[in-house]
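so the lab meeting is tmrw and i was supposed to have these ready like two days ago... anyway. pasting both below. for each one the top line is the aa sequence and the line under it is the structure tokens. i havent really looked at them closely yet so no promises
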Amino acid sequence: MVETPFVEMINIDKSFSGNQVLKGVNFEINSGEIHALMGENGAGKSTLIKVLTGIHARDNGIIKVKGKKVDFSNPKQAEQDGIIVIHQELNIIPHLTVAENMFLGKELTYGKTGILNTKEMKKQTETSLQDLGATNIQPEDTAGDLSVGKQQMIEIARALATNAELIIMDEPTAALTAREIESLFNVVESLRKKGVSIIYISHRMEEIFQICDRITVLRDGQYISTEFIRETSFEAIVKMMVGRELGERFPARTSIIGDVVFEVDNLDRRGVFENISFNVRKGEILGVAGLMGAGRTEIMEAIFGFEKKNNGTVKLDGKALTINHPSDAIKAGIGFITEDRKAKGLVLNASIRENISLTNMKAVSNNGVISASKENKLISDLIKRLQVKTTGIEQEIKHLSGGNQQKVVIAKWLGIKPKLLILDEPTRGVDVGAKKEIYTIMNELTEKGVAIIMISSELPEVLGVSDRIMVIHEGKITRTLDREVADQEKIMRAATGGENHEALISN
């Protein structure tokens, strides 16, 4: 007997303002299946999910849940049929507690009195978090004070607490530590055994092969194929996604590494990091690895002037710098691409032109007055150089795909012609094709002598792109490895404090 799919989407069409973004797309998922949905940014994944859950009305096609035709007009109706979405963009209310976020809109009360039963809500929240393995989060914690990774865990716990039959996870591990990812995968596996279905959207190919049963690939709004994971390969999936062979995943490093151009000596910020000393050479990519919360971002933010430091010196081209504000770093020739492009790297409601001009006022101005011709030339040249897919320089950033948004962030800093460029999670939420384009841009910059510091939580990326790898654990540098001798085991040992532990035993 053939099993009836839990969800079946047949010949789905969807257009916005005459632009067809879904063209006859088919998708199905069985009960207890973990099904990956992949495609480049802009392929139609998010739109398909929004059509399924009633956020967008489909133009054509049929949707069935447990064999019955449905026509959800809002996510609440989808939730009543057991379908829950954990969005990539967190829906956390920062000033509320964890428990208040968990029960937002579903508050428990004492009978009909309207008085909140805070004790029971805290108890159930604690149970949900423990089931997820998130024992380092307390129900009374203020959600806004927690890391992005912990906020993500709250979202997941909230979804699991609804007893959903289908959970849609959109980039669920993008901000999680290795330990949190392991806990999540254990929960996902237990849900599978209970018959819960999961649509898993991720750009991390290693995760897809680790936990998924099947994969469906979309390209340019069209259905390409559905394959069993055990019967396909990384190369085959990439070809389906981009429509061509991508070649080597990480382009070969060809830059000539020169003399030390940037030095940090004994950088310290009490309670966050201490005794941070390292250097970067001209044309070199220094990868920075470590678990979330290790202090990687905080160290770079202190260097750039986002955060204060207590002690330490920073030198560029042998000259000591005084950096009290990001503007001081920019004037010295240092650029910083932040990990949260939407909150810190871009003005989403502004145009591409306005975003790039923000950091390049000097280059596009004559005596303090913006020159339209200079501005248009600079921005048009950068868009062409980075191959940003756009309708023009006046297009609003929020309408670009994630990969193209990231390219605009990079373009902002290329305009200042940096000597040092710091990239914090430069490919987070970016598809495999755009990732390779970003790696190529990094290579081109280092060939021109730019020094690059790259923070990344993806170990294959750190190993594939970096010339040297600096590992941070609890605010300290535990090890620096040349790429020739580095591997995932050595990095993880250093990132979890294993290096220090072994040193103590040997002494």
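ok protien two:
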Amino acid sequence: MGARRVCTLPGDEKGGGHVSTGAMGAGPQSRLPEDERKARVALSRVGEPGGAGIAEIVAAHGAVEALERLVRGGVTVRGSVPEHYSYERLEEDLEHTERLGARVVIPGDGEWPRLLDDLPQPPLCLWVRGPADLDEVSGRSVSIVGARSATTYGTQVAADLAAGLGQRGFAIVSGAAFGIDAAAHRGALAVDACTVAVLAGGVDRLYPSSHAQLLTAIADTGAVISEQPPGVAPIGSRFLKRNRIIAAISCGTVVVEASLRSGSLNTATHATEILRPVGAVPGPITSMQSAGCHQLIREKGAVVVTDVAEVADLMGQLGLDLAPTKRGRTRPIDSLEPEDRALFEALPMRSHYDVEALSRAVGQTIRQARAGLGRLELRGLATTDGLDRWRKSR
């Protein structure tokens, strides 16, 4: 066997992928798939999805050749276990997927969400349960995330935002967790809007189990998706990798409530890294469940959002989703010239003042006061008793 060459892939300094290449060994003699879809499914078992090493090999050589190199020993990637591959296991995964009523979506499919290609390490493939076309719905979508231990304020805001955005044609993306995630999904379902749940485990592992009914409802009308093969358990590190998909598959992310160590801040970071807009809902300054949102606004450049119109303006189409400028209630006297406003303020509500008394009260001549009172009368703001005495109109 010839000398081995070691190359470090981008991201290795962060614990990403370390690849050693050398002469092709005999390796296991298991049958290898010849099409891209099956190869990507198989690679999801060989290494943890979302890792830099396998993603780099696939980007360089395609999934079929990448799998062959890994299984036959031509290349090794830190974190990959080629011994986990078998054609029989691949067939079992595909059969299990079919029994679930799910499908495998890969890059190049019409349904593949092109927004995911902005990720440094996009998923190898996605398992999908539900009728939603992922590329179509992701083109007008918002991720709503936040604290699991949410307050009543947070869950109400999340549900209201999701429902309002759903009525405007946005799909709602979240992670099906307790608290804000669940409230966002339920808000969308309440108005028959599309919602997408991104899981940290396989699409057959409805987690948390108490949300099985919610996830089933999502799968009936929207989509439940994962980059993990069926049967894979949701563990901590997979939630963090799942967050990058939540951030990338939508047009932007809104954090409704978050403590300073909330996982939703990780989602916001992923969104910022791929240049997606991030909105944050402010809360009481005394609430630790809003401290993370305030940090995003203060230090990370998140945009304050307080209602559906502001979120749509941030995440939607330029011009189409422009939020109206917020103003206080307009009063008839707001547009008065200063002299006329002074006259109006000097007028009594019940009794009448003569013009001479009014002119003295506001420092105007009688002629100026009489002209101003005429203008106020035309606006319906002043009325006279016919004897040149005046008061405010009721």
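from a quick look at the 2nd one: The chain has three domains: 5-86, 114-315, 332-392. The domain at 114-315 is CATH 3.40.50.450 (Rossmann fold). will dig more after coffe
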